[in-house]
Amino acid sequence: MSDLIGYLITGLGIGAGFALVASGLVAIHRVTRVVNFAQGGFAVLAALLTSTLLSAGLPHGVAELGGVALGALAGLIVGVVAIGRPDTSPGTSLIVTLGLGVLAYAIEVLIWGDQPRSFPGVPGVAEVGGARIPAHYLLIIAVTAVVFALMTWFFGGTDLGRALTACASNRYAAQVVGIDVRRMGLLAFTIGGALGGLAGVLTTPVQQVTFDSDVTLIVNGFAAAVLGGLTRPTIALAGGLLLGVTQTVVAGYGGGAYQTEVALVLMLTVMIVQAARTGPVPETAR
């Protein structure tokens, strides 16, 4: 029983990281209709910079904030390139983000090399229900809960958040009332970058990061986000937690070789169900 409790809690910690990546995807897609395939790269960049800053002697907290700030800056740069030009279609922007994600590989290998990196997190072990859990997993869960609460307040209780929500609901109406949709899109990319960066700095102490770790992050983040149709952050949170717990339980009882397959099966199942509910796509009139 204690093994199951341990798997559930560590799964929630890993799933919280997926949920942060997924929420960044949702924040960007809601406003711009762009699926950002560079989202996992924000987490990798933030984690690699944090490891460098800690190695240079900066204290915890400052180094992690530096990593998140780099993630936000990378998000803004990707946004400028992807949607900065007027009338860029979401499909074109998607390809641009994919290309920038590949470009990030070369930059990361050039600066940090291709060896895995990590850094220490919260030390110690907590005992829950007879299971001994590394305390850092509890930090990941707590920080993610606070971040989602702040996002709820931001999008519903501030003018800037309501402007982003207006763009997500109806871009044309938002433009009519004077909201700069392009600027809101860049803000969404910046928020997405910060959320991805936060996922990277939180999970690296329990999962080593390399230049190509973004593949695992984007697969799992997209699987969580697609549960809510890439538009609902709360469903993305639930999807990320479900994914993390399922993968951890599968790894615990059946081996860790099938974790990515769990995400792919979940994503395909949701997409097939959604396609069945919406029915066939009508043919374009010739």
UniProtKB/TrEMBL annotation:
Identification of the protein by name: Branched-chain amino acid ABC transporter permease
Keyword Ribonucleoprotein: no
UniProt keyword Membrane, yes or no: yes
Coiled coil stretches, renumbered: none
Origin superkingdom: Bacteria
Compartments it resides in: Cell membrane
Pfam family, one: BPD_transp_2
Species whose genome carries this gene: Actinoplanes sichuanensis
Residue ranges of the TM segments: 6-28, 40-59, 65-83, 95-113, 133-155, 184-202, 222-245, 257-276
InterPro entries: ABC_transp_permease, BCAA_transport_permease
CDD domains the UniProt entry points to: TM_PBP1_LivH_like
Membrane-related topology note: Multi-pass membrane protein
Keyword vocabulary terms for this entry: Amino-acid transport, Cell membrane, Membrane, Transmembrane, Transmembrane helix, Transport
Entry similarity comment: Belongs to the binding-protein-dependent transport system permease family. LivHM subfamily.
